[in-house]
Amino acid sequence: MFLSSSLMGGIGAFARYIDAPGDFISFFRSFSGLIGMTLFFLFVGGFAKVKSTKFTPSIFFSGLFLGLLSALYVISTQYTTLANASFLIYTGPVYSTILATIFLKEPFKPAMIGSLAAVVVGTLLIVQIISDEGFKLDLDPKYAFGNMIGLASGVAYGLYLFASRYRTDCDSNVRAWYNFLFAVMTIGIMVATRWSKLTYVVREKVDGVPTTKVDKSGNTVTADWDLFSMDARTWTVLIIAALVTGFGAFYFLTLASKILLAGELATISYQETIMASLLGLTFFHEPLSGMQMLGGVLIISGGVSQVYFSTREKPVHTPKEGEPDPEKEKAENLIVTS
């Protein structure tokens, strides 16, 4: 599980070396996962389970929202720090809890108010609406767009988790294949509809580090993108990123899901935010201020406490061989697999 979440947290670092739009990078990554899952199913005869699984709208929407969160997350890593992008997407479980309380009539325990408050305050600290200078809405233009996209990815993540709760009976591998399929379709439509308007972030080497270029106003500089103008380095990094953070991360997640308990899976997945923060600090000189570190701690605490409150009072259930485990299905949904 540690390997899986670490590999997932590396997509933002890879993206810094790819001269391409974030949604195209995400499409290539998800397409790699779809090919890998398809080959795996062909090898083990997994499509028999796909055919026997009843298809419902929730399966479609979970894949659609997974595509959205994946694309938005990769885009956000190109316009803000890796730490900001990773922390903001993990606000998703709280949105999911609110939706489940409203639409699924799941109980909203008083202790969950503390979790929600921690995530809200943590988000304000991460995007620096609350900082050492007090409360302000005049955000740094260099990161403002990326932070907003990061928040949007968190909303998409929450919708993905919410949609997934409707089919906890679905086999995890079957659901993963459908998720990759509809994620690829969703991101593909996003890329196709904006094809002539796609741009990528211009970077320049500063002390050997690829650094976002900004104009005199402090805004990020972008350039028009053309698929056929991508050089050999960009293609090489893109392919490696797709294999490592896409199919590779999913493979280790599959192994972990057979060994760890539900709460352990979901809790360790938050390690992805730590990995992204360390990569940003080590390779791209993106330090977090003390207030932002506090914000990150609050977001992680709020998310992990959600896992704790949702699992501590559940009766222990040991599924029979071949029977889906609803609790493990829910825990796996807390991990971004695409």
From TrEMBL:
Keywords: Membrane, Transmembrane, Transmembrane helix. Residues 2-127, 232-302 form the EamA domain. Pfam families: EamA (PF00892). The keyword Transmembrane helix applies. Residues 314-338 are annotated as: Disordered. The keyword Transmembrane helix applies. It comes from the Bacteria. Signal peptide: none annotated. The chain crosses the membrane at residues 25-48, 55-75, 87-104, 111-131, 143-164, 176-195, 235-253, 265-284, 290-309. Residues 314-332 have a biased composition (Basic and acidic residues). One of its GO terms (cellular component) is membrane. Belongs to the EamA transporter family. This is EamA-like transporter family protein. It comes from Actinomyces massiliensis F0489. The lineage of its organism: Bacteria, Bacillati, Actinomycetota, Actinomycetes, Actinomycetales.
